[in-house]
Structures are given as structure tokens and as C-alpha cells.
């Protein structure tokens, strides 16, 4: 189990800007991940601004929960709980859920749910698939470029900058905005991946 405080900026960008950034900076890694999202029929977690998902990679998996924290800056802040899973554990869990079983989480996330949402009946309600590209950006700040595909065929591109230093995030974002000629979408208009996956489910 890991517990991390996340401070990050998220910006939806055009395919052209995505391609320009990807080809400008040194690539550290690139991979695909599948994201499966959970809530109950009353959207209880959504109302609490909590997101819960299982992620599948080529050779491993994880279950993660993002819990909002009081804002200390203009950027999104949350505590992320992560429990490692084997690929077979995750695939077996998803298969059971997709055939009608309840989504009963174990690990630190299961403990959190039992403590805060003891009667919640979770279900798998949507998913997405993301090609993630990690780049060494300005001031050696890591950039994450995501190309995400949704169940109805819609796809989009997103720039994420995650760092412990809010001032560094701001400086890097401003430089990218200047160098690649784009403006950050106002926060109220920028939907999270889980919100976009919900909007584009089938």
C-alpha cells in the first residue's frame, strides 16, 4: 500500500499541441493502461469528490482511490491510496464484477470504504484506455501526456504536471503555454478522466 499527496495541473490540449510537445522533449517512458471506474447507483463517491479505479498495465495492476484535500494552491490536490495487484488478481476481480458480483475491495482501500462508506454497494460503471507518455520537461520537471479513448469512440489529449512544488508547476505550465501557444482551460470546464469516461460511456 502507498499513500501519496498529489499536487497536479491538468490541461486538455489539441492533438497538434500534444504532438508538438511529445516531439520536443526527451521521452522517459510510454505505455498503455486500462482504467475501470467504480461507484454506487447513487454516485456516493462522486458526491464526496472521491474517485475509485482499478488500473491494468501489461504486467501488473493496481487499485487506487483519490481523496480530495483542502486546496493549498490553484492546482488539484488529493491523497491517493494505492494497493498493488497482480494482473491475474485484477482480471479475476473485474470478471466477477462484470458478471454481477459486488465490487468488494480489499487492502487499504477496502479499509477506507468500510470506515467511511460501510453500506456502499459498488459497481463498475465505466472505463477508458490511455496511452501515457512521460517526458523530461522544462527544469527537469516530468510531463505526462495522455491520449485517452472512451467506450463510445471519443478520445482526447491531456497534459498533466505533477510535482510537490506548486511554484514549479506554475512556472513550467506558463512556459509551455507560451512556447506552444495554448491557454489552460478554466478549472470548472475541465472534466476529470472519470467524468469524461462517464459522459462517453455506452
Automatic annotation (TrEMBL):
Where is each CYTH domain found?
4-202
Q: Identify the Gene3D superfamilies for this entry.
A: Hypothetical Protein Pfu-838710-001
What SMART domains has UniProt attached to this entry?
A: CYTH
What domain of life?
A: Bacteria
Name of this chain's protein: Adenylate cyclase family protein
- What is the species of this protein? Lactobacillus psittaci DSM 15354
